[in-house]
Amino acid sequence: MSLVSGLTGFKTLTKREILRFLRRPRNTFVPPFVTNVLYFAVFGVILGDRVGEISLADGDPVPYILFILPGLVVLGAISNAFENASFSIFHGRWNEYIEETLTSPMPYSRMVAAYIVAGATRGILVGSLIAVIGAFFTSVGVARPLYLLAFGLVVSLLFASFGVVVGLWADDWDNLTMMNQFIVRPLVFFGGVFYAVRELPSPYQELSFLNPMVYMVNGVRYGFLGVSEVDPVWSLAVLTGLTAAVAGLDVALFERGYGLTD
Amino acid sequence: MTAAIDVENLQKRYEDVRALDGVSLTVPEGSFFGLLGPNGAGKTTFINILVGLVRRTGGRAEVFGHDVEDDYRRARDAIGLAPQEFNVDRFFPIREVLQHKAGYHGIPESTAGERADEVLRRVGIYDKRDTRFDWLSGGMKRRFMLARALITDPDLLILDEPTAGVDVQLRHDLWDLITELNEGGTTILLTTHYIEEAERLCDEVAILDSGRLLTVATPEELMDRGPDRITVTLRDAPATVPDLPTLAAGEREGRIEAVELDGDKLVVTATRGGLVAPDLVRALDRAGHEIVDFDISRTSLEEVFVEMTREGGGDRTAEPVAADGGELP
Ligand SMILES: Nc1ncnc2c1ncn2[C@@H]1O[C@H](COP(=O)(O)OP(=O)(O)O)[C@@H](O)[C@H]1O
Ligand SMILES: [Mg+2]
User: What pLDDT shows up at residue A5?
Assistant: First the structure.
């Protein structure tokens, strides 16, 4: 009897989860590719010519296409991180093969870590893909690489963690689509992807700052452009705290067997 | 020696159903143990508590001395499970599924591939290693379930109705395989409602009905509990049942349940017929009857089983029978 003390289980499940989406690029990478080419063409090029430049709180005004790029990266990263974790867990429950993992001696925290890491990996890959697409439409630099990395990582981890909760909670496929379409997307669209929040009239401006997406979009924007509507350090701290809290909830739910055991 | 499985007063309630209602049971290490019971008796629930797919609502459950909840990692490390339903990862070819399962149990990647090949050969589906589970035939799916349970080289192999709906050939293959494993020291817990299977394979069987344990015994002991039929064919059929002292004594003492004459055949129904038969033959002989044929048929385990579970199962909750090899919802 060899008791598992190493990270073999975690590594295996992470690999399995990553291979699952890598081997299905038509389901995982092609859709965001197409959507974002359209976004950049329509919003960036056609609409952007009319909108002109956007002024942020500090620094020089930026062309519209450059302004929306970070938001599109965030949108792609979080929805893919979310979808990966929620889909994979729900599908495993639906077809019961999640039992292959559940009946193993892996600690619950490592199962959760694997789902989150794999989901975040997909988020970061799709986010990077979108940045590369953007680079074909406009010249984009990275003003603050470390901030970009940190925000990209934390938003992907946060939404993968959130996806775990939804994957456990859902009892139907509709639940998953519903969360993505009716909660994640609206928050992103009102989160300052396509317009500067500070240009909104009161009270919409104040209300917007209650939306966590505003901090995520602005954080990533700070990484690319070096300008932001909110304090990046503060945003990063809050988002990191939130991620830790949701990941902690994931582990607690696994330990309780929520959605997993009878 | 620690028992492979040790449960005490184990309980599981689902709202109004008592799936397990205070089961106490010990499965000795190295044994071949059968868990018998009609549909809905609680067999799968019992197994799922051991591997953590069902949370008990009361009692104690240990695998090799490790509590299945407090020390779940050690308990699960020892168990290989071939469940009743097909719960297999359909995204990957079966060889990879096995490698993943091995990895979850801490077997390093460097050896997981070899092990996968070995168990695939063992169950006879190595040729299909690059196929996904969905594309296997029903029999191959069952073989794969066993391969997956074996990939971690378990000390306790649990098989939940492994031969339900499989053809004779495969059933015998599976029997040979698990017998061999048991001879090599693996403890086996088998649930089934093919009683013949239990009779043939198990050292000991437990009969479960409506969440309660009715008995634990060897198949032999159980068969001894049921009546046997002794049929003696006589050359000259007597007009009435021969008046023999040994028959009268047997009936008085309750060993003999019935004596009937059917033409030239004398049929005696007795518990432990093997003990009654020699006296009967001697007495008939002494009384001048010539015996031309003689037969004892033992009660089958099946008859004992049906008898026992009929008594206890009045309030059994009907359970839809899972379609064999059925797709998951
Ligand atoms: N998830 C569940 N919810 C409610 N009742 C259940 C559930 N799982 C099993 N049961 C009930 O528990 C009893 C035992 O079921 P089970 O352990 O599957 O029996 P067996 O494997 O012996 O056929 C049955 O009455 C069944 O209907
Ligand atoms: Mg069952």
Answer: 54
Q: Residue A262: which of B54, B73, B77 has the nearest Cβ?
A: B54
Evaluate whether residue B93 is within a structural domain.
no
Same domain, B160 and B279: no
pLDDT at A182: 82
For residue B277, give its domain range.
227-297
Q: Of the given ranges (A159-163, B38-42, B51-55, B227-231), which has the lowest mean pLDDT?
A: B227-231
Co-location of B200 and B260 in the same domain: no
**What is the tens place of the pLDDT at every residue in B186-200?**
999 999 877 888 888
CATH of the domain at B276: 3.30.70
Say what the pTM is.
0.87
Count of helices and strands (H, E) across chain B: 11, 14
B30 found inside a domain = yes
B91 touches chain A (CB under 8 A): yes
Query: How many other β-carbons are positioned within 10 Å of the β-carbon of residue B46?
Result: 30
CA atoms within 13 A on the CB side of B136: 28
Helix, strand, coil shares, percent, chain A, to 5: 75, 0, 25
Query: How many residues does this entry show for chain B?
Result: 329
B291-311 tens-digit pLDDT: 889 888 877 777 777 777 776
Counting ligands in written order, the one closest to the CA of B39 is: 1
CATH number of the domain enclosing B213: 3.40.50.300
The answer to whether residue B54 sits within a structural domain is yes
- Residue B41 placed within a domain: yes
From ligand 2's centre to the CA of B324, what distance in Å? Answer: 12
Model ipTM value: 0.90
State the ligand closest to the CA atom of B45. Answer: 1
- Both B9 and B74 in one domain: the answer is yes
